[in-house]
Amino acid sequence: MTDRPKPQPGILNIAPYVPGRSQAAAGQKAIKLSSNESPLGASPRAIEAYKAVGEHLEIYPEGTSAVLREALAAVHGLDGARIVCGNGSDDLLHLLAQCYIGDGDEAVMSQYGFSVYPIVTEAAGGRLVMAPESDFTASVDALLAAVSARTKIMFLANPNNPTGTYLSAREVKRLQAGLPPDVLLVLDSAYAEYVTASDYSVGVDLVEGCDNVVMVRTFSKMGLAAARIGWLYGPAHVVDALNRIRGPFNVNLGGQMAAAAAARDTAFTDRLARYNAQWRDWLSAQLSSNRMRVVPSQANFIMVLFAEPTHAETAFEALLAKGLIVRQIGSSYGIANGLRISIGPEAAMRAVADILKNMVFD
Ligand SMILES: *Cc1c(COP(=O)(O)O)cnc(C)c1O
């Protein structure tokens, strides 16, 4: 068929994003440990704020997410004029690619980086160049070696999904210092709230000190995945470019208000972070036996590596049979022997440990 609308070249080569599985066997009550959602729900203040806007669905939201930007600026000590909010951080990643990548341009990411980066790059007509990692951790030298004259964006998830590994503030600084000044460094700090490493930096200092660094954040991992709220902090010239092309009402009102309340509810954020650190440590220790290896994680999930891909498959099915849904990282990622397990409710953590420690792998 030649006479029908055709997508731009490359669009149909994009492999669609595969979300974490959300259903167990028919009739079974499932616990979802496949999408890195909050095990403690959302901040009660956020829920209250979300409900409060429900009476006036006929009115457009305020287009610049001013209330949310003000809350973020106050809580994080930032310049609110340099914040852009998005319909999830995916929205912002698309906007960045659209702004800075054209046909034939390149973006660089590390080998096991977040799977949305290829989608946004290819959707903008660009090509992703992968830099090899060492032991599931991004390598600054390899990332810099992958830069060419066509490179426009460098994506770094820190900590990274699905590996959970991170780069220290020093290493990220070295990465920025080695980049040509016209390459935009996108620091995706989606899991920042969960980091406990003392040598980590979320990226604010680099954004403020450089003209080519933006920090992207999300509320999705902090209890508001359904509200779809991401935000970005960047230099004024990047913010200006993004504001020209984003949807004029790209963030829904309920989401804006819920996120503003969640941002200010730092007691809830702290509680979630403490809960996560406790059970991340516990589960990591439990699963470092029975021929399993846990890659040290700074996020709200762990990556477990099995001796064989078939072991990962067996483990996945055994967990699923008990209603515990985890994420198979899979061969498309090049980690066929890996499962990603979100830190979830205490009973689920104990059940996962019990099942995997007692599994007999052939
Ligand atoms: C979950 C995640 C996001 C967040 O996506 P949203 O669109 O905000 O839900 C961004 N980056 C990484 C690395 C993630 O794992």
Description of the structure:
- The protein is of the alpha/beta class and 362 residues long.
- The chain folds into 2 domains: 11-32 and 267-357, Alpha-Beta Complex (Aspartate Aminotransferase, domain 1); 44-265, Aspartate Aminotransferase, domain 2, CATH 3.40.640.10.
- The protein contains 12 helices and 13 strands.
- The strands form 3 sheets. Strands 2-8-7-6-5-3-4 form a 7-stranded mixed sheet, with helices on both faces. A 4-stranded antiparallel sheet has the order 9-10-13-12, covered by helices on one side. The chain has a two-stranded parallel sheet with strand order 1-11.
- Strand 9 and strand 10 (301-306) form a beta hairpin.
- The longest helix is centred in the C-terminal third of the chain and has 21 residues, at 266-286.
- The radius of gyration is 21 Å and the shape is globular.
- The chain starts with 30 loop residues before the first strand and ends in a 5-residue tail after the last helix.
- The site of pyridoxal-5'-phosphate has 13 residues, from helix 3.
- Keywords: Amino-acid biosynthesis, Aminotransferase, Histidine biosynthesis, Pyridoxal phosphate, Transferase.
- The modification N6-(pyridoxal phosphate)lysine is found at residue 221.
- Residues 29-354 form the Aminotransferase class I/classII large domain.
- It catalyses: L-histidinol phosphate + 2-oxoglutarate = 3-(imidazol-4-yl)-2-oxopropyl phosphate + L-glutamate.
- Pathway: Amino-acid biosynthesis; L-histidine biosynthesis; L-histidine from 5-phospho-alpha-D-ribose 1-diphosphate: step 7/9.
